[in-house]
């Protein structure tokens, strides 16, 4: 399909895009690293965002030369974050309105997150009326069908299949992401992607190897509130 053809299916990332959990992650990881006299930087954080927990931990161990294994680091992080911790997460600006828009126009939605299922359940403890509009959720942290975490396209292709809709194709699917790893995964899956990065993310595209065709499927916004559905063949917001 062309860039102007209507999208028919929507897949959202969760952390840092729809809810404020990235702040919690940063606080907990910063506290843990301080034990080893290390400082958690955005440069490292952006390498971790969107990945499965163990994959992210392996990167942290290597980046900071930590004297523990990725599994030990993962276990320590999980010991510091309880379901109640995630209950503090709040919806980010524009998330609820976007869900209402897509729901009112009959576009099925899914969430595709690198978290494990119990974490997603805890993160979605509040705002049940928003999450009830989802068709399904894919948690790559413990979903056996998702073999590789972002930036591999696996999670988005699994999410697409689970719409159980013959008309659902990568080219008419729109992914919303805040992390470049997730953006790369969506683009690799052949989907169109809306990127809402952290304010600290430099301008430009991190991967200079991307083709013009691939770049044409990417739209960068500063907030979900900035989303213009008419750019994706959809009716304007009221």
Automatic annotation (TrEMBL):
This is Uncharacterized protein. Pfam families: Hydrolase. GO terms for molecular function: phosphatase activity. It comes from the Eukaryota.
